Amino acid sequence: MECAVIITYRCNARCQMCHTWKNPSKKSEEIAPEIIDKIEGRYKRLNITGGEPMLRDDILEIVEVLDKKTDRLEISTNGYFTDRIIRVAERFPNITIRVSLEGLPAKNDELRGIKNGFDHGLRTILRLKEMGVKDIGFATTISGQNCHDLLDLYTLVSAMDIEFANAVVHNSFYFHKDDNEIKNRNDVEESIVRFMDALLKSPRKNMKHRAKDWFRAYLNLGLLRHVQGKLRTIPCGAATDTFFLDPYGQVLACNGSDQPMIMGDFKEQSFDEIWHSQQAEKVREMVQNCKKGCWMTGTAVPAMRRKPWKPIYWVINNKLRLAKKKPLRL
After folding, report:
1. Distance between terminal CA atoms of the chain?
2. Is the pTM of this model over 0.85?
């Protein structure tokens, strides 16, 4: 299983595609590390996200609680608070860090609404790399406004030998958006296809990183299909393979629904009571009947792991097609 812990809705960014910053949680209402510790089990991956996680004064305590529950603890951040991130990495050197960037400097700062945001994000990655933190990288949300920067960002991360996570703009309660729309769909589709081609031809020297790029191409196939309004390539496993915990202690199926699909509340219930409750079963039924077709890393990657033969077959087939100079089979 995987879990994303949304520790705050407060944010210093002013992103155009996400209005969480307009709807911040109150510091006094955000759950304490003791409540977060009610998460039970051992997880493939735990993701600390927000808002901006580094705005929590007790971020070190939260990391300490969650680090014991997973082999891979990831923090999603805009990278602005470099010193705070470095303090976390000094104490937890095996941490995974993904810094969100929406393009090269001018485009990133325009879309994320942070002056010199690209510089802060890049400096954070460079400092972490200098420290020897291994699992670091950028994350980009593809839209009609930044799609032309996608390949340039990939060239940058390949040269730096760091990771590159991708999503595409969505509407949901989590983003407080229902008007995210890609008007230049052809441009976005062409950019994603070119990016998939580049991933399958990954120039990375490290074989592990190269293989991850191949399967990231399949992840981007899901993004492409979402942009095209098509069905998911693999069914969603929200509330079964993965769940979310919000800043108020509510256990949610996912962050892609129009309204929160609440399974229970950690302030009042134990993990076991929530996970095996009638309400949780009701939410799982809602997930099975959901027609939204969102494709975000939090739910897409666990789904790929559940049915690995689909991405494996797709990667092998398209690697062979590229070797024969044939176009990708989408």
Report:
1. 28
2. yes
